[in-house]
């Protein structure tokens, strides 16, 4: 009898290990059953669902503009070396490194973790080198390949999680090349065209499963991607930034503004059909008089992200189905991600 119990325990242990593997990005389960009606298959919202593939429960007919989506601001800044800057000598008595050390990082989890937590909106800044893009969070010190440090993560994730989509907002950063930037971007897209959605209208979920939805912060001769600011395009195609203030001088005012905007987005009479993005990110100006910078204000990201994250944890801790749009944050936490996702169901 003892031998049988040992075998039973070993078998149970193996099942637990195999079950846990399904929560990883690589081994995330693929939903092959009727995705369009899969939401009815959830017995309870409190059921533990895999945040790697939470979009499998969204109807194919649902517009992305009707979803609550976790997003990260300056998504690749986890690559920043941070404190390494303080060892460098810059102008202003060599103290510029202290300022950059405070401001360069907006995320501290890598791209795989962001995807695993359920983030589906990414804010990406790229430097155009003429023939390719690089990501340079420590400009001009270090650079990372756009292919290796971003696209490869996205393509791999979408292959393993074909029920999902990724919204990528791309902008030119640390360079100023104008139309050539669009040409280089198109070369990247042409290498894997089936993995991209580049129309300028807001898609439904069924149109973009397994794809990257392109949002652009640049002008386009060819009209590729959903424009963020181009008012000449049909307003239904635009991603609307309904909160653009990133300089925060009073935390309570920032909290109140976020609350009002979230209420506005979920209001059924607010019938705008484009994307909504509510940047819950920002920075608090910090004067450094001790460094003889009497008129200089250094952005302090953490001074805003800590209290705002705490506010969002409290705000979403009580579950109810609602639309929040894209909630863009600095230093995203898995608890906030999960609670935003839950409001879809």
Structural summary, described in words:
The chain is α/β, with parallel strands linked by helices and 345 residues long. The chain has one domain (64-342): Phosphatidylinositol (PI) phosphodiesterase (TIM Barrel, Alpha-Beta Barrel). It has 10 helices and 13 strands. Helix 9 (302-317) crosses helix 10 (334-342). The radius of gyration is 22 Å and the shape is globular.
Beta content comes to 15-25%
| Oligomerization state | single chain
**Spatial extent as radius of gyration:** 22 Å
Give me the CATH architecture, please: Alpha-Beta Barrel
Work out the helix count: 10
Decide which structural class fits the backbone: alpha/beta
Percent of residues in helices comes to: 25-40%
What is the CATH first-level class name?
Alpha Beta
Distance between the termini: 47 Å
Domain count: 1
Number of strands: 13
Whole-number mean pLDDT: 74
Q: Characterize the overall form.
A: globular
pLDDT < 50 stretches: 1-45, 82-101, 230-239, 290-294
Biggest β-sheet description: 11 strands, mixed
CATH topology call: TIM Barrel
> What do we call the CATH homologous superfamily?
Phosphatidylinositol (PI) phosphodiesterase
The H-and-E topology, N to C, reads as HEHHHEEEHEHEHEEEHEEEHEH
